[in-house]
Fold these 3 entries.
Entry 1:
Amino acid sequence: MSNLQSLVSAALDYRITWCEHHRAEPYRCDWRVDPCLVIIYTPDNPYRLFVQNQGEIRCVEARDGQALLVPAGTLHRFDAPSCDIRGINIQFSLFGSIDALSFYRVPTLATGADAHALKHSIEQLVAVIGRRSSFNTSDNETSQKKLDIGAIAQERQLAFSLLSQLIGLSAPLPLGRQRILLIQKLRPALHLIEQQLHTKLTIEQLAQECSLSTHRFSTVFKQTLGDSPHQFIIKRRLTQAMSLLANNTTSVTKIAEQLGFHDQPHFTKLFKKHSGLSPVVYRQDIQRRVMEGHKK
């Protein structure tokens, strides 16, 4: 294994925030941005995805065994009648904060054998996750569950198998190797950001971690990650907020405080601008989907 392959292998991780196989009620959501890849497979009625990019709106429809794919960070909304679905929200990351699929052009529609393979992977993950854990369980309930190392290993195998399928469907973006090497150069700063996400970090601190001048650091950071360090930190805080809203009952005020926002109104304004939904509505939407699945 080459040094670059070893680097990526050690840095690759995933997180599942929603995974279901059930009969869904009619569903229409407002425009939103999710921090993870969303996959929806439907074997029967049409499921419509609307994607907005640079002011242009595009509609993609899946039906009769097709699958919709929404890459992380995409402004989108869904519109669907009652139908059977297999769905998953999954985030594949490198170095803790980089979307592993950002190195590829992920299609918004999968058909035929490709869609069937995605459906099968989701069904397998639902079965394994159901054995090991359930969403929105309390810490006390989780601690009392019997540790199942076999299920954990099987889940990881299935999750990375799904990633392999997705990469097989996608076209690699140019300069991917160079970008990974630059991310490695920025890794000390990225680690510091993750460790002190709630604190105010200066460009000087971050540049020093990477042994770069502030000008060189800012240039490389922007070219590699597409955002300034300040923008990147705000987005990471908002992504962490999405995870907290989806997986525990901590108040919005407390989450804003934990992540270093000035106050709740400031946090709410930034969250809605980033995701398309207020923190309260975002949490309600996640909980509604989870409860709908548990009723089946």
Entry 2:
Amino acid sequence: MSEQKKTNQLIWIFIPVVGIAVIAGAIYAVINRQTPEDESFEQAEAAANVIAAAVVADNNLEDIVKSAQTWGEAFKPWFGKTAPEFTVTDIEGKQHSLSSYRGKNVLVVFWATWCPPCHKEIPHLIELRKEMSEDELAIIAISNEAPGTVKPFVNSKGINYSVASVAGAMLPSPFADVTSIPTAFYIDRNGRIKFATVGLVELDDTKAILKAEG
């Protein structure tokens, strides 16, 4: 057999062997791809979540205010004072007295159907209601518009928290002194005004404020 024929035979034997090796390597890589990297990523992500949770838990209100982008604190002279009593009627006809919520946190939000930032805040409040039970937190959104205006809007947005209309009614200060919306009052389990905000407050900030120490 000539040297040329021997060379050609070796080439045709070598090519399938290499092909099989490449395919086997590819299959192995798919089955086991990035397993060490995936495990490292999951471990790093878990550690980051633990650290983030610890940071939120340790945050005080001053730290949260410093990081705010779309809102600011409001009614600061009222912080730590007992919230004046009021009673409002929601769009379903149920009455809500502030004093009846002692023992749980209360979030009172002033808003309107014509307010764009209020519209953007609604999904965050809906999610907050889903995440926190009514035993932990009461949410009362108050508008000074007529019930006939508020109720269709509430139904169209799928709002799952209490919404009241106070058109023509009088509320005590500081609630009567709200001039910009959305404005929110965070009232603690003892009925004291813990904090107040003006502007759009997203879900993470709202939860941080509820958890934070004053």
Entry 3:
Amino acid sequence: MSPNADATPNPTPSSPSLRTRFRRILIGGLLILAPLALTVFVLVQVFRWMDSIFAPLINRVLAKILQDDIHIPGLGLLLTFLLVLLLGWLSTNMVGRRVLRLFEALVRRIPVAKSIYGSTKGILEAVSHDQTEAFKRVVLVEYPKANIFAIGFVTGGARWGAVEDRFSDLLLVFVPTTPNPTSSFLLLVPQREAIDLPVSVEEGIRMVISGGILVAPLRLSAHPVPEPVPAPVAGR
């Protein structure tokens, strides 16, 4: 009798049940439909909001010209777009910049308006900044305690050795939160304690926003050695 005669055959994997397949199909459809529906909803709301800025003024002008109450969707959006282009053009020449600085100085003298204007302008400048310029590379920092790491983005460096010796070589690391990266914080990390992660900045941002669902593959062989980040001299 052969030694393998009493061996039990390996059980064949059972196919997923109808309920399991239905759930997978339903989740797959939701993963496609939910982002698409949210994108359309946000775009529609932005269109309506921008169109409504000058809509009352346009409607009154059209009513006087045509002697009838009429609303043409999109005219308010077009006028808002032209106003944005005009302000952008003013910011590119000397006279326009002087006029805008005078306007900002006037707004900053108003108690409540200066806080709203300053915060909004700072957020828009940060968001509109090119990511390839704002973020130098992706790093891991040991935070908030030992053996626990957070993903961060190097934005610059600081050499504050005149303050204290251990501050002679620091990295400014922007650490975003999940899923809302705007509620983030800044860490000053010694360069020797920051671990470079061989992924692109875009891949690092996707990992943070997705909560780790989208994990980027590490490019260990093609990842270049990072160059030191230039830092301002202390006291300047």
